[in-house]
Amino acid sequence: MSLSIGVIGTGYVGLVSGVCFAEQGNTVWCMDVDTEKVTHLRQGKSTIYEPGLEPMLQRNVHEGRLHFTDDLRMAVRNATVIFLCLPTPPDEDGSADVRYVLQTAEDIAAIVREENLGGRRIIVTRSTVPVGTSDKVREIFRRVAPDADLRVASNPEFMSEGNAVQETLAPDRVVIGSSDPEVVAVLRELYRPFVNDYDRPLIVMDEKSAEVTKYASNAFLALRISFMNELSRYCEAVGADVEFVRLGMSFDPRIGRRYLHPGIGFGGSCLPKDIRALSRSAQEAGAPLRLVEWTDRINREQLERFVNRIRERFGGSIAGRRFAVWGLAFKPNSDDVREAPSLKVIAALLGDGATICAYDPEAIETARRVVGERIEYARDMYHALVGADALIIATEWGEFRSPDWQRMKTALRGHVIFDGRNLWNPDELAARGFEYYAIGRRSYAP
Ligand code: UDX
Predict the structure, then answer these.
(1) In Å, how far are 45, 80, 92 from 54, measured between CA atoms?
(2) Half-sphere exposure of residue 22, counting CA atoms within 13 Å on the CB side?
(3) Which residues of the chain have a pLDDT value below 50?
(4) What is the side-by-side order of every strand in the sheet holding 66-69?
(5) Which of 305, 326, 354, 392 is in Cβ range 3.0-4.6 Å of 349 for a Cys bridge?
(6) Does the pTM exceed 0.85?
(7) In terms of C-beta density within 10 A (0-12 exposed, 13-18 middle, 19 or more buried), how is residue 279 classed?
């Protein structure tokens, strides 16, 4: 059954969700306060880089199923299921700030009351919200529009950037947090094309458990990465190779292969922020999550260690040195630089008086908005190397994996590579005449 959907907020979560709901035949009203963004989207132009998103967006706009507006009233009038996909930025103490979510809930209730809109509306929190947010939203509805039929549910998303469209259309699981059978029935209907009974289930639970599930999932992924990052230090200390260890572990189905890659630490808009918010919430609840706290700490240390290794290689002072940085996005196939390890490395090196020329296949413009002209941006990966004392690998883009070694050697003045993503085999790099520092593996120093 085709439903009329509202999506409030057209960031990563909102835009991808809205487009995918439309793709499955629903009529979708996406609302954002940013009018410039809305104008772009109306013209079928995606405001984020996400493989497969733009053609799907264009098709659904063209076929009249996908609408964009900067007027919340339009979405509220037209939709019976409204997804809140709003940011929950970190507060000063690390906890998630739900101001935008609660304000929008208040605005929705006010519109329903003022316009005397009849019928049932289900308001679903889809962005990551702290436990108890659904209760707060329900409270707002009771206070602002006591006579309206406004229901609440939690439906956290689990998509990761770069695969967001695929993961939304065919999710591993859909989690619905609601104790209201009518709400569950509607959301079950909406998600019917996305799930199946065999390996992509729809799991129904209470709202609080759904809210915690989202944080727990992200924290566990982060924990795996921090485990491997800490293990990489041990491997270095005892002369083992963490990449062999990873491989040896990962074929155990109880462990699995994913999220075991050591590196310079995890970044992005979710993992770092969510583990801090979860730690904070757990402390406030009097049930601290110590593994999660250490996950964050190890992640910060990992980056510091990487930067310190660079400093040490140059005798403790890198002032006046020039570095090439390959990779700015926090992960490949994305133009997102939020909490990107690359930018933290760059900030540390700039702070020490080094100069930097960076290259990224997609994220130069987003990085420029944050870093400005304090660094140079190269037109291609080889251009970034010209005259540099060393190359730093910060993101594992596919095109970096099989470079033209001869061109690299010619352009890179110092044949020194700090590989924060373990792209290459250390023995091979040594044989090619590079001084090579990887993570948790043998390094080839002079
Ligand atoms: C994450 C979750 O995966 C997703 O379910 C949630 O909805 C949002 O947060 P995302 O932020 O897009 O998604 O990125 P993800 O692919 O999980 O990577 C996060 C960071 O971890 C990246 O910086 C990545 O480089 C790093 N990472 C990932 C590792 O260092 N090692 C790994 O093995 C995997």
Answers:
(1) 6, 26, 36
(2) 27
(3) none
(4) 66-69, 27-31, 4-8, 81-84, 120-125, 149-154, 174-177, 202-205
(5) 354
(6) yes
(7) buried
The atom number, within ligand 1, closest to the CA of 157 reads 7
CA angle 401, 407, 409 (to 5 degrees): 90
What pLDDT is attached to residue 287?
A: 98
Q: Decide if 38 contacts 11 (C-beta within 8 A).
A: no
270 is catalytic: yes
Q: 4-205 has which fold?
A: Rossmann fold (3.40.50)
Q: Which atom of ligand 1 is nearest to the CA of 269?
A: 11
Domain boundaries, the chain: 4-205, 219-437
Is 310 in contact with 341 (CB distance < 8 Å)?
A: no
Domains 4-205 and 219-437 share a fold: yes
- Does 268 contact ligand 1 (Cβ within 6 A)? yes
What is the pLDDT, as a whole number, of residue 34?
Answer: 97
Nearest-CA neighbor of 190 among 77, 67, 81, 105? 81
User: What is the Cα–Cα distance from 185 to 58, expressed in whole angstroms?
Assistant: 30
Instruction: Return the amino acid letter for 402.
Output: S
Residue 279: predicted pLDDT: 97
Beta strands in 162-321 (DSSP E): 174-177, 202-205
d(CA 288, CA 283): 5
Q: Report how far residue 68's alpha carbon sits from residue 144's, in angstroms, rounded to the nearest whole number.
A: 26
State the residue for tokens 């002072």.
317
Taking Cα atoms as reference points, which of 284, 271, 250 lies closest to residue 93? Answer: 284
In this structure, the residue with its CA closest to atom 34 of ligand 1 is 259
Which pLDDT value is given to residue 426? 95
Say which DSSP state 317 is in: -
Q: Specify the pLDDT at position 444.
A: 81
Residue 263 near ligand 1, beta carbon < 6 Å: yes
How far apart, in whole angstroms, are the C-alpha atoms of residue 331 and residue 436?
A: 22
Looking from the CA of residue 267, the nearest atom of ligand 1 is: 23
> One of 20, 30, 235, 270 is an active-site residue; which one?
270
pLDDT at 446: 72
- Residue 419 neighbours by CB under 8 Å, 6+ apart: 393, 436, 437, 438, 439
Q: What pLDDT sits at residue 247? A: 98
Question: Could you say which of 3.40.50.970, 3.50.50.60, 3.40.50.720, 3.30.110.40 is the CATH number of the domain covering 219-437?
Answer: 3.40.50.720
In angstroms, the CA 14 to CA 31 distance is: 9
pLDDT at 92: 86
The pLDDT of residue 94 is: 86
